[in-house]
Amino acid sequence: MKAGGNRPAADAWDSGVCKSLIDELWALRASMLDYEARLAPWFQDVDPAHAPSACNLAHYLAMRRFDMRRLQERLAWVGVSSLGRAETHVLANLDKVLGILHRLVGREWTPHTKDEPAGFQRGAALLERHAEALFGTSPPDRDVRIMVTLPGEAAADPELIDALVLAGMDIARVNCAHDTPDAWVAMAKRVRKAARTAGRPVRILMDLAGPKLRTGPIANSASVLKLKPGRDRFGVVIEPVRFGLRPHGAQSVVAGATHHFGVDPKWLSQLKAGDRIDVTDARAARRRFRVLECHEEGALIDCDRTAYLTAETSLHLHRQGRGPHATSITDLPHSGEQLRLHKGETLRVVAEGLGHGATRSDGGKRSALAAVACTLPEVLKQVRKGEHIWFDDGRIGGVIQRVDDKGVNVAIAVAREGGENLGADKGINLPDSHLDLPALTAKDIEDLDVVARHADLVGLSFAQSAEDVRSLRAHLRRLGAADLGVILKIETRRGFEHLPQMLFAAMGCRAAGVMIARGDLAVECGFERMAEVQEEILWTCEAAHMPVVWATQVLESLAKTGLPSRAEITDAAMGGRAECVMLNKGPHILEAVRALDDILRRMQTHQSKKRSLLRALKSWAPPKQAPELQHATALVAPKRKGPKATR
User: Which pTM value belongs to this model?
Assistant: First the structure.
């Protein structure tokens, strides 16, 4: 065999080749142990149960400092492990290869330890144990758990939660950036009850809002609530709207209500079941509501005709008696007023006030910039000219042109042809900016009191440093909830860059994991790099024996429209490499849960992390005897003697 011109190729088992590999692997092993020693200060707060995992993570980080590709090719040529699937047992895998190479060249080899610090079997067992500590036991025939974000109406809809549990939900996610503490508690209680009824474990994650930077309200966006009953294809009402009336400013949840707004407490106190309420809505259309039930939290009302309610709308009690007969309404949601932004235009992001659209002179030229406020005005003092800024999950992008005391000017560089709408409460990302923001806001610290009493897991949003993790743990200890499971949400570039430090800090928890929040992370790191980033997070967490949640837009089209795309089915299958997959809310969430359950069960027999499992393929099973084989058999079969057999 020739290679490289007339030079003879070395035999793969040539002693010189093997000795060279042995020298390289010994050097690599020494660098792993040296790196472990250098990271010793990071190990100080690690829980004893996570100590082997901390060592293994250090070894993995040491190995990945080098370009291993050439070494891997040579190891594969010899026919030994190329270290490509060694995440859970890095040092043990390297020692196994060293042992084989020593024997190939006739050298003695004495194993250093039986399982150092986490071997092939022990490493996988540690990851499984940590996943069970965080998420609970997995269902039969499906190792990957399913997490579902509960919609706000779940607080008053026990049937929805019952159905989700029966469909396969293993973890219920409550997003503390929305709804109220009363609603969160109501959801948690309904999940507990549904789990007991179903006879299966379902854990509750309460996700802290964190310092989420969003657009503020837009000027002239009057609050409007549209009440629209469900109708069949003939226009017949089949499902009246049910909404709750509660005292002005109250946060209580009225069971069975899908919407809530506030009214005069005295007016509310005189309502009785069966009462009629007259209203003239924002279009001057006359409507009549019916009181279904009255509770301590408020009253449940239904409406069988479409109505538009604003702050100017009055409700009139349709019966005689003392007490106020009319009330105004409050606590209505903001409308969807939006700014229309075009590529090449300038947007003003201000620290205070309401956003507003651009005004134009009679000649059609702009006389004032379109402006939008942000929910964390302090960040505008931390940005610099030339840094990028993104809005609404990356749909609109620009570059900061000017920074002053009242805000910043942004040159819009990314928007669809014809313009893009920007509304209130849309995310803002500043991937180039070094923002000095604590992961726990004052609201988060207040919300932790509810989380500590009603959740099994707490999500740390926008985790960016080991100090963020330690701060959360300190607050949990203060609340007597040190054993609460912690999930680090990686959704910023800085969080991704500091992932190893945060993993070591999280190993001080009894149970911890990582969520790959791919929406914000894609905007922060760049969509073209997202596939690479999520792979690196998966590998590093596997080395730390830290369970992972695969999140954001999984089966989103299916959950929202009832029809999946081909791409998202493949994406959901990829999620099987994590320990949990998260679905977001949507009208068809039950179909999405059932589909994901089926996908994960199927893929479990084909894939384990990066390793393909060679299960027998049944898709292309040959016939009982192929035609060619039948023909060959006829050629060599001995001739039958005696009379022919009869049928």
Answer: 0.79
